[in-house]
Amino acid sequence: MPPFLIGSRGWDNWMIYYARSQNIQVIDISATMRVIHCDHDYSYAKGSQNSRQRPQKREIINLHLLGGEARLFHLGHATHELRSKALFRRTGWNMRQRNIELWCIMHPEHDWWVRILRRLLHPVIKGLEKSTTRHEDWRRNEPSMTRSQSKTLA
Questions:
Q1: Residue closest to 138 by CA, chosen among 10, 31, 19
Q2: 41-78 burial string, b = 16+ CB within 10 Å, else e?
């Protein structure tokens, strides 16, 4: 693991990125287990002028160690999800898009033509994203989903 500044942007994203780049499955358990991130101020940070904003120097260091913003992977990049005590492989347009992102990082020599295709197909991509986006309702035990995603995951 690179020598990240723990608690600053990027170090936890690297874990998901690294696992995906090594073809290791990443499982999103957030539908089964409530995970809470505690919001806090940044008054503890050395040299912090604003308690509501992270020190930029720390952010830049971690982003450099990560290899850029394209590698800021998150739970949306998980390959599987645990729901109703069962493991489901993620499918659908969003997962395909995440796989394309990873492929472009692993094969930067092909990134130029992928960007051109994305620009040309932008309206179609936005429509697919809208039809497969998960809508979360935290009053329920599990996030609700749009019809098209429910059919895809079943």
A1: 31
A2: ebeebeeeeeeeebbeebeebbbebbeeeebbbeeebb
- Please tell me the least confidently modeled range out of 47-51, 54-58, 96-100: 47-51
Copy the structure tokens of residue 102. Answer: 């990873």
When computed from its CA atoms, the radius of gyration of the chain, rounded to whole angstroms, is 18
- Provide the angle, in degrees to the nearest 10, between the axes of the packed helices 93-106 and 122-132: 130
List the one residue out of 26, 28, 6, 29 whose CA is nearest residue 17: 26
Distances (CA, A) of 100 to 21, 77, 114: 12, 11, 8
pTM of the model: 0.66
Q: What is the pLDDT of residues 73-89, one digit of tens each?
A: 988 899 999 988 899 99
72 backbone φψ class: left, alpha, beta (φ>0; ψ -120 to 50): beta
Name residue 73's amino acid. F
How far apart are alpha carbons 52 and 109 in whole angstroms? 39
Please report, for the chain, how many H helices and E strands are present, in that order.
6, 5
- Sequence spans of domains, the chain: 1-89, 91-154
